[in-house]
Amino acid sequence: xxxxxxxxxxxxxxxxxxxxxxxxxxxxxxxxxxxxxxxxxxxxxxxxxxxxxxxxxxxxxxxxxxxxxxxxxxxxxxxxxxxxxxxxxxxxxxxxxxxxxxxxxxxxxxxxxxxxxxxxxxxxxxxxxxxxxxxxxxxxxxxxxxxxxxxxx
Length: 153
Description:
Elements: H1 3-13, E1 20-24, H2 28-40, E2 44-48, H3 51-60, E3 65-69, H4 77-87, E4 92-96, H5 101-109, E5 114-117, H6 122-137, E6 147-148, E7 151-152
Parallel strand pairs: 1-2, 1-3, 3-4, 4-5
Antiparallel strand pairs: 6-7
Helix pairs in contact: 3-4
């Protein structure tokens, strides 16, 4: 049995929610490479090749993170990031070979949360994904309650 499939089955059996990641890149081999790496780390990935497909998928809900390329067909990733922000607050990590300071600043100003330069090391991608997810979701829903004989404060 494939390691990624076994990992997903283990998560389902234990009732742990699987993290869903959308990869938006017009280069299918890059999508497949990232998908394979993140799936091996226990994440469930989907990929689309343009912004219109991304918006349609995001509208369905259930995503925890988006990896977004800048160079996409029709409109660039900056445009699609702004469109995504109109309907979702899901964290966005930009992936791009357009790695000059102006593009990095523009990515953050358009609503991005992180930037990864192409070519990238897959370990760096995984580490940044884990960091964004930890910062975005780990502090929600925790409330300290003092309880004494069934009464809570």
